[in-house]
Amino acid sequence: MEITSAEITQQIQSAKNGKQGAFKFLLDFYWNDVYGFQLKRVRNEYEAEDITIETFAKAFDKIDSFNENYTFSTWLITISKNIQIDKSRKKNASISSQTTDTFNDHAHKIVDHSPTPEDNLIREQNLAELLRYIKLLKPHYQDVINLRYFQEMSYNEISETLEEPLNNVKVRLLRARKLLAEIITQKQ
User: Where is the RNA polymerase sigma-70 region domain positioned along the sequence (predicted)?
Assistant: First the structure.
């Protein structure tokens, strides 16, 4: 079935009006475009999936700012590209801050990256707090977050485990992350 630009425009308008079905339609229709774009850029399936989910989360949060005079796919790709560039900059900044200038540093130092007892305590407290926030979500959102981030399952593995279509898993994870972010923001 061929989807017309008029149907897409109508779905975008429905999404702007908060219709969940429209968000699902847009996610399903544009997922492969954004994911394929990122996969070519980062050459890592896991990273491409994460950036793609972040792209849709950001786009859906800012859907009211979308101008219908432009193409929705171009808008999504631009958001996706900016997210990927930001992530690359952060990664590169982290790497460059850890390197030393060999001309100025005659002695090579081996950095101990193992966490200090203080780091372990902070991480455990943050994890406990995060788990408390996750428990505030509905059980089906808790499940998908647990499978993705704590059991590190791929989307396909989650789909098989939950016996749900892959796109439903993607939408549920997207929604779970958004709800979790809202809970964390409210509690702080």
Answer: 32-92
